[in-house]
Amino acid sequence: MESIEHINYIKAPAEKVYQVLTSEEGLGNVWTKKLKVKPEIGFVNEFDFDEGYITKFKTVELEENDKIVWECVASDEEWIGTKVSFELTDKENVTTVILKHFDWRARTNFYRWCNYNWGMFLYRLKHYCEN
Predict the structure, then answer these.
(1) Does the predicted TM-score (pTM) go above 0.85?
(2) Contacting residues for 114 by C-beta, under 8 A, at least 6 apart
(3) CATH classification number, 2-130, choose in 3.90.226.10, 1.10.357.10, 3.90.1560.10, 3.30.530.20
(4) For 9-64, how does the pLDDT look when each residue is reduced to its tens digit (9 = 90+)?
(5) 68: which strand partners?
């Protein structure tokens, strides 16, 4: 199984970063404006990227201000069954974010494109949380 992993350091407390990653307002400013999100275990978050289908992630783990894990239940075929986690560590109001997109079946060109886009996602998350 393949895994995408990125790290970034955000000059904001973990509480703020967690709020952005678990709210429609936050993810709407970082990822896509067309979404349905609730910070509840078992809730299926929906993200529309205008690709002809809705990407759906079921929330499988929530540790407030510490960790979020989603499982993809609908999307591009290569994403279904993969998981995305955000691990947050706060030290003196600088939050380390480790993003993992794991359980990929193969390292394909779509995997490589998504790897790039997750890096851009973390860049936008940093910019939004710091400004």
Answers:
(1) yes
(2) 4, 79, 101
(3) 3.30.530.20
(4) 999 999 999 999 999 999 999 999 999 999 999 999 999 999 999 999 999 999 99
(5) 62, 86
